[in-house]
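Per your request, structure below.
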């Protein structure tokens, strides 16, 4: 199963745009999106990120989970809808 995480924080100027791009890119695909506030991140999720060597250096960060494997799609920048769709294999 594929899922996207959008890591945000309150004062991030690019976070609203990143959320909008991800929602637009995945509309109608059935791929779930979870918005995670960096300052309120669950410790279990933090541990999972460390296990997969995914490090959040900047927000917004977009992480793809695919069959239990995590990888960073973007960090500190807003990807295009095409980049998001291509990363999850949606035409």
């Amino acid at each position: 199963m594929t899922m996207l995480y959008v890591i945000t924080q309150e004062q991030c100027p690019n976070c609203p745009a990143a959320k909008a791009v991800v929602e637009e890119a995945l509309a109608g695909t059935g791929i779930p999106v979870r918005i995670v506030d960096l300052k309120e991140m669950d410790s279990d999720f933090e541990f999972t990120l460390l296990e997969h060597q995914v490090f959040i250096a900047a927000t917004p960060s977009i992480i793809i989970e695919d069959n239990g494997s995590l990888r960073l799609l973007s960090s500190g920048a807003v990807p295009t809808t095409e980049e998001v769709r291509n990363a999850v294999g949606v035409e």
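Residues 2-88 form a domain with the Glutaredoxin fold (CATH 3.40.30.10).

Regards,
D.
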